[in-house]
TrEMBL record:
Residues 334-357 are annotated as: Disordered. Gene3D superfamilies: Acid Proteases, DNA helicase RuvA subunit, C-terminal domain, Phosphatidylinositol 3-kinase Catalytic Subunit, Chain A, domain 1. GO terms for cellular component: cytoplasm. GO terms for molecular function: aspartic-type endopeptidase activity; polyubiquitin modification-dependent protein binding. It comes from Daucus carota subsp. sativus. This is DNA damage-inducible protein 1. Belongs to the DDI1 family. Residues 1-72 form the Ubiquitin-like domain. It holds the Pfam family UBA. Residues 370-407 form the UBA domain.
Length: 408
């Protein structure tokens, strides 16, 4: 596989390495390419340091991935003063500011999601353009605050005006929201990134597929089409028919009592409900997670089975097919936390309730509901196009969209 290494001085190196190669051997190859001693190299992947004894495959590296290399002989970490800003919003030391942000691959990844224009400026070589962008952002923010202060001054002119007092209350509330948003941007920027759900590679009855791991779903679920593809539909027990009621509802066609699944190199017995759900393929629920003593290890980004005897890495976002986003929405509609099953079978408690995925997705906004939010934000002085984009970016959350627009 080919991987790309970016050094601290922006040198781009492409290497063809084996998946089972060790990090130490990778550093040895980089020593030849960069003339930087192996002992002075620090490699970062997804913001985490790569240890010498680890294998590239265990770390989850795949073809085309990017690795950051920080040299021990590089310049020392910049001081807090060098990373501060002037009154006009520009950086005191733009070069140090640029290198500091570049050196944090996790922060760069979040910045590409929340502010791609600034991320491109930081990756570029034009410090004047970066400084100009920082000044424009600061000038725009100062202008917005000045307008808000002027509006408040007019409102305070008549303290007995009921409508004015309501507007003052709304302005104070919005100011608190803006300050909270700015604090989050500074201290918790990853909160604005999209959370990638947990998928692992599995085989069901010998058929490879990508399983959605949902610790909040009480039952393991397979769709009718997936069960047919895996050759399991002939084992369907229709006595367990029912209806799953949640935010929406879906028909339970029955139950497959046992079938082999392969996780890593080991086979495990599994049972699952079969749902008539075209937007969902396979959901690995809490019943099987408990049965096989699974652990969701987010530190190492792996699913451990059998108390740790097998560990399989969670898939990266680029390895998850886009159509699987529909499967995540299904977890809200057909297996929400309040779901109940009306079943003709003896097991009426077989309730596929969901928790992990259901809280992270909003119901699609109806036209009138969305338009009302757009109108409300446009009345605050923002352009309609910017308002629509902000609402879509925050999945219809009006307060987050407003905070983003005020802070823009």
């Amino acid at each position: 596989m080919k991987i790309t290494i970016m050094t601290a001085d922006e040198q781009i190196i492409t290497l063809d390495v084996d998946r089972d190669e060790s990090v130490e051997n990778l550093k040895a190859l980089l020593e030849v390419e960069t003339q930087v001693a192996l002992q002075q190299q620090q490699l970062l992947y997804n913001g985490k340091e790569m240890r010498n004894g680890e294998k590239l495959s265990v770390l989850g590296l795949s073809d085309g991935d990017l690795v950051m290399m920080v040299s021990g002989s590089s310049t020392p970490s910049p001081s807090a003063n060098e990373l501060s800003f002037n009154q006009d919003g520009s950086a005191v030391n733009p070069a140090a500011f640029q290198q500091h942000i570049r050196g944090d691959s996790n922060l760069m990844s979040q910045l590409f999601q929340t502010d791609p224009q600034l991320a491109q400026a930081i990756l570029g070589n034009d410090l004047n353009k970066l400084q100009q962008l920082l000044r424009e952002r600061n000038r725009h923010k100062s202008e917005m605050r000045r307008q808000q202060d002027e509006e408040l001054a007019l409102l305070y002119a008549d303290p007995f005006d009921v409508e004015a007092q309501k507007k003052i209350e709304a302005a104070i509330r919005q100011k608190s929201i803006d300050e909270n948003w700015e604090a989050a941007i500074e201290h918790n920027p990853e909160a604005f990134g999209r959370v990638v759900m947990l998928y692992v590679d599995m085989e069901v009855n010998g058929v490879p597929l990508k399983a959605f791991v949902d610790s909040g779903a009480q039952s393991t679920i397979i769709s009718k089409s997936c069960a047919e593809r895996c050759g399991l539909l002939r084992l369907l027990d229709p006595r367990f028919k029912g209806i799953a009621h949640g935010v929406g509802q879906s028909e339970i066609l029955g139950r497959i009592h046992v079938a082999p699944i392969k996780i890593g190199s080991i086979f495990y017995p599994c049972s699952f409900l079969v749902l008539d759900a075209p937007n969902m393929e396979f959901l690995f629920g809490l019943d099987m997670l408990r049965k096989h003593q699974c652990m969701i290890d987010l530190k190492d980004n792996v699913l451990r089975i059998g108390g740790g005897e097998v560990a399989v890495p969670f898939l990266q976002e680029k390895d998850i097919p886009p159509r699987y986003l529909d499967e995540e929405r299904f977890a809200q509609e057909a297996s929400s936390s309040g779901a109940q099953v009306t079943s003709g079978a003896t097991e009426k408690s077989a309730v596929p309730t969901g928790g992990q995925s259901s809280g992270n997705y909003f119901r699609p906004l109806k036209g009138s509901e969305f338009e009302a939010k757009v109108t409300k934000l446009v009345e605050l002085g923002f352009g309609r196009e910017a308002v629509v984009q902000a609402l879509k970016f925050f999945d219809g959350n009006e307060e987050q969209a407003a905070g983003y627009l005020f802070g823009g």
